[in-house]
Amino acid sequence: MTSETGFDPKLYDRFPTREPRPEGELEELERIWHAPTGWARLTVVNNNFIGTWYVGAAFLFFILAGVLALVMRTQLALPLQGILPQETYNQFFTMHGTVMMFLFAVPAVEALGVLLLPQMLAARDLPFPRLSAYAFWAYLVGGLSFFCSLFFGLAPDGGWFMYPPLTSIAYSPGINADFWLLGIGFIEISAIAGAIEIVVGVLRTRAPGMTLDKMPIFAWAMLVFAVMIIIGFPSIILGTLLLELERALNWPFFDPTRGGDALLWQHLFWFFGHPEVYIIFLPAAGLVSMMVAALARTPLVGYQLIVLALLATGFISFGVWSHHMFVTGMPTLSVSFFSAASMAVSVPAGIQVFSWIATVAVGKPRNNTPTLFLLGGLVTFVIGGLTGVMVALVPFDWQAHDSYFIVAHLHYVLIGGMVFPLFAAFYYWAPMMSRRALSERLGKWVFWLMFAGMQVAFLPMHLTGLMGMPRRVYTYLPGRDWEVTNMISTIGAYMIGLGVLLFVIDLARNFRFTAGDEAGNVYGGGTLEWLPTGLYSTRSIPVVKSREPLWDDPKLSDDVEAGRYFLPNSATGHRETLITSPIRAEPEYLQIMPGPSAWPLFAAIFTAGFFLLLTVQAYNPSIASGVLAVLCVLRWLWETDRPVAKAHADVGAGIILPTYATGPRTHGWWAMTVLLVVIGMIFVMAVFSYLYLYGVHPSFWTSPPDAPWLLPIIGGHAAAAGFALLARRLLARERTTLWTPATLVLIAAGFALFAFAIDWWSWRATGLTGATSGQGATVHAFLALQGILTAIVALMALYLAARNARGIVTRPRNNSMDLTVMFIAYTAAQGTLAALLTRLFPGAI
Amino acid sequence: MRAWLLLLGGLIVWAVHFFGLYIVASVFLTTDTARMLALLVTLACLIADAMLLAAAMRANRAADDGTRRWIASLAALGAAISLVAVIWQGLPALLV
Amino acid sequence: MSPPISTRSAIADALAGWPPPVFDPAGPYAGSITTLAWVLLVMSVVVLGVVLVALWLALFGSKRQRARVGGTKAVWTGGIIFPVIVLTLLLVYGLSLTRSLTAPIRGDEMRVRITGEMWWWRVAYLDGEGRATMVDANELHIPTGRPVVLELESSDVIHSFWVPRLSGKLDMIPGRRNLMRIQADRPGVFGGQCAEYCGGPHALMGFVVVAHRPQDFAAMMAARRTRTVALSPQAARGAQLFADAGCAACHRIAGTPANGLAGPDLTHVGSRRSLGAGILPNNRGTMIGWIGDSQAIKPGNRMPRYTVLPGEDLQALAAYLEARK
Q: Where does the sequence pass through the membrane (chain C) (predicted)?
């Protein structure tokens, strides 16, 4: 056996332990993980609660957006109906798409991750429980306010894709479009927060012995999902920022008369937007792989191939964004490359489909609701995949694009690939959080109504599209032969609606949330989430020796419940979980976790307040709200990163682990690295925008500030990074009183500010403003990004200084210090790169 | 890190290839220069894939435990699928 | 001879959805895509059949059949080898077709510039130097049997030009010019509709292409250039009203002082097959209705209501415009 961290795998043989556990351990665990009651319930951070609320909120948005769809289908049942006036219809279809994608699909799978991952990995909780709480509350408060814009006629009406110039200030002067841009803003934040949580959770909090090849497929899927969010979402974050800057400050990113280009938005949008489809599909596919094996009562066939498929999808889906742009007149060779990639991305889907079929063939699935949803979803998804291959061929897409054929295609993919698996998951996992399982009898009705409704609604739409009906039309003319298929589609839509209604009734009758006496493993799954649990998750954390531990070791549940594995108690008297190594899941240290807190909730409310007040142009209250949000975040962080009294603790069977760790192997370091990747991707997309606009309209380019300006700018950044690193070095020296490391970090922040100011000033001197041209706009976008980073650097430096003043910066190494230094170094690097690029390209080349 | 690089090597080659072609086609549009460059990039990536495939198969044989063998064989599969995808990706340079 | 006008209005015929226009091409550019569409459709049905049979065997097959479907070998065959072969063939076919459909434009084709406007189409027939020789709106006349190059532009937001029986669609993007080829092999009227969401009444932004035999086309264009308009007394009053009511601020009629450019050119409005950008048949009644209250017909369009005009004024205006062939 080999080891990743120096941990001796032979130590695993000490489990399950034989000695009886001391009295009172379980009670202590229960006390430590106790969830507050009454109003204070809102401050819980346990993943059982947050996860369930999160799923519930996502489902609420599914229903709301579904109702919008039913009203739209009613309007389209017959030609020239007046049920929805034009402008309302345009708001409805924009909201339907936006809410389904941003407020239902992504949060729903993220919510399932929060709910299921800790259980599947046998972690006590996700590594940053307060971050989960914050992500949830920001999403709920922001999402509901965003949806309410519909009731005031202020909902966005530019389509969920928001193409400028239609959404630019000239053609959308109202604040409707701002609602979209800012409303999506905090949903992006919450998605990124969740993604960081999931990456670190999957890679670092798995049960000991759960090597990569023993990870549940859902964990693989969520890992790829989270990485895709990290790579894909920055593109839309930058896009929304640019469009909002264009609308608010008249910076012409998308205005061709001043050197911008409308297609830049489409690139930014779809570089996020197509991976988004797989961001939604992969977790659902992961759920299918989990459920199909459990329901067929046999290990998944082709586990390794499925992992390959997930990874390959994660990569290839970033090479298909322009297939949404086949009709924009891109160079033929370019579109052909995207066509080829779009074909390639269907191979992994094929692998998964045939693996599922093979698993069904090996096992003996019973006729129950989750199985029906799985099989129905499979057939539906295959049809969507096939029409996907059709539209991947450029000439066919020229006909099908933006017609109802695409509406049919995308609903087949998303409903078959995500919604049906999600309903299967509802039925399959409900007994994990509910006292009663959902009703099989009602469930079959739900399935058949939804499945039949799906086919009735969307199969005819393929034809409607080939009959020439474009998408996003609020009505159509009589005499165009579109009445019949549209009427059929409407009937189907109501069948789906009826099915969902029945499901809600089933929920109301049978779903009773609980964290203790749940109905349990009714379908006989073999993975760790079916271990007996309380709010502390499992009593002890088992050593994992196979992919379906519960099937392979029938005594496992009893041993875990009796505390015969890792962490049968609270080793330190705090909430804690095991941090394990990324490949072999060897125990590394004990992470102390924060408990319930109101601050994430307040931070979320003020974050939402910041964006919403900004939208309605109440600038001063908005800024106040933003400041409060930041203060709340800092307040919640203040209690973290404190070493505990015991530097080492026995985590079971005499295995001793440290309780405080620093450096590159810590979960905090990993999270910061992931965050910096996000910020780096935003920067990469900004670089793309800069080069792209130059490529389209070089004639608008003017000369940058003279090269000597680079000296103070780069010098300033270098000094910032240097002082920050020096501070980290000096922290280890006990007797540095005169220049305390915190002072050095403040000096570093000062240099970062200086470099930024010089950069900004030098551009000012050229007379190029953000509103001048595409060049001016992108240069100032770089400056804006740098300004934000610099402000965060200043904030972090002050926060660190405050911690230092209160004597809570541990020596010789401290995580808060490490993370601040990382951030400052990154800021300096990005500032240098931006300054070099904007001054040397294209001039010096 | 080495394990991850091996595991994702094939797919990383695919990504490098794809974005290489995207840049070539964006700069040189639909011209013979673009086609030639695209073919060169494709050839380089195919060689890289083949080398990765060989390395992964070697690692698979040399592996002394299940996890390491599993990672090596997954890496080999990744290189193989990348090989196919890179060939597809190169087709437009010949056909368009 | 112009194409026959059936009992249904020509516009309704042109816009009919049955047979599905994508499967009922009228020229080579749409035709080759129709072939591709059939190939893809058959492929999809066959592959779906394979998956369904595999699933059926997995669920209800004999022990031997289930053993064949259930195993890594089946995943390799069904999930990797089979798709790779099918997709490779399709890709080669698709790429070759893309190449042939985007072959460089020769340069001696008839050229027309079509500009997307919120929510109608500006049409300009161009000469060899790219100058407009005749301006029209919402309707394009082409000769049969030869390719016509369309220069697609936009003056406001993104639109998309789509006449499915003649070609696939192509976007009209502000600041860019996209070139599209269409060709009709027989005379006829072919409808289309804007395919890129462009706000407001995007749903009601139609277009008509009329294909004539080459000699008819030449005769028609010549007639348009040389035609002198003889006005009835009612129409003459309409001409006066046209000037007085402010119509000329937005509309141009060649040979008269009316030279507004914001709205559609009305020089040949009387000969158009549709009104309101491809949404109404063109006759006296619809013309009166449109002028009087176009907002009721196409809410959100840029033409104001003229409900203040009495009936006989509307009659006179309609008579005048009807005469502008």
A: 36-62, 74-95
Residues C95 and C116 in one domain: no
Domain carrying residue C92:
21-101
Angle between the A774-805 and A667-696 helix axes, to the nearest 10 degrees? Answer: 160
Provide the domain limits for residue A815. Answer: 678-840
- On whether residue A230 sits in a domain, the answer given is yes
Q: Three-state SS string across A750-780, please?
A: HHHHHHHHHHHHHHHHHCCCCCCCHHHHHHH
Residue C9 falls inside a structural domain? no
Sorted by sequence, the CB contacts under 8 Å of residue A604 that are 6+ apart come out as: A133, A134, A136, A137, A138, A140, A141
Instruction: Provide the shortest C-alpha distance from residue A157 to chain C (in Å).
Output: 8
How does residue C2 score in pLDDT terms, banded at 50, 70 and 90?
A: very low
Mutate to test the interface with B, among A322, A333, A339, A684 (most CBs of B within 10 A): A333
For residue C119, is the peptide bond before it cis, meaning its omega torsion is within 30 degrees of 0? Answer: yes
Position A532: which residue type?
Answer: P
Residue A591 lies in a domain: no
Residue at which a domain ends, from A510, A537, A565: A510
pLDDT number for residue C3 = 42
- Note the pTM of the prediction, 2 decimals: 0.96
Report pLDDT for A3.
85
- Whether residue C172 lies inside any domain: the answer is yes
Judging contacts by C-beta atoms under 8 Å, the chain A residues touching residue B74 are 304, 307-308
- Arithmetic mean of pLDDT over chain A: 95
Range 789-808 of A in CB contact (< 8 A) with C? none
Q: Are residues C97 and C114 in the same domain?
A: no
Q: How far apart are CA C257 and CA C243, in angstroms?
A: 8
- Domain boundary, last residue among C101, C124, C157: C101
- Out of C83, C101, C119, pick the residue that ends a domain: C101
pLDDT at residue A844, as a whole number = 65
- Complex ipTM: 0.98
Q: Which residues does chain C have within 8 Å of residue B30's beta carbon, measured at their own beta carbons?
A: 102
Does residue A186 register a pLDDT over 90? Answer: no
CA distance A543 to A567: 11
Q: How far apart are the C-alpha atoms of C52 and C55, rounded to whole Å?
A: 5
Residue A82 pLDDT grade (very low, low, confident, very high; cuts 50, 70, 90): very high
Is any Cβ of chain A less than 8 angstroms from the Cβ of C25?
no
Per-residue pLDDT tens for A12-46?
Answer: 999 999 999 999 999 999 999 999 999 999 999 99
Residue C10 forms part of a structural domain: no
Q: What is the pLDDT of residue A1?
A: 52
- Evaluate if residue A540 carries a pLDDT over 90: yes
Q: Is C107 on the interface with A (CB under 8 A)?
A: no
Does the pLDDT value for residue C6 go beyond 60? Answer: no
How far is residue A548's CA from residue A215's CA, in Å, rounded to a whole number? Answer: 9
In this structure, the answer to whether residues C242 and C319 fall within a common structural domain is yes
Instruction: Determine which of A84-98, A174-188, C238-252 has the lowest per-residue pLDDT on average.
Output: A174-188
The residue type found at A74 is T
A339 interfaces chain C, CB cutoff of 8 Å: yes
Q: Tens digit of pLDDT for each residue in C153-190?
A: 999 999 999 999 999 999 999 999 999 999 999 999 99
A616 in helix, strand or coil?
coil
Q: Give the CATH number for residue C172.
A: 2.60.40.420
Q: Are residues C134 and C161 in the same domain?
A: yes
Tokens representing residue A769 in the block: 């403003």
Single out the residue in A510, A534, A564 at which a domain terminates. A510
Residue A230 has pLDDT above 80, yes or no: yes
Q: How confident is the model at residue C1 (pLDDT cuts 50, 70, 90)?
A: very low
Q: Does residue C6 fall inside a structural domain?
A: no
Residues C78 and C115 in one domain: no
Q: What is the domain count for chain C? A: 3
A452 located within any domain: yes
Residue A8 lies in a domain: no
- Total domain count, chain A: 2
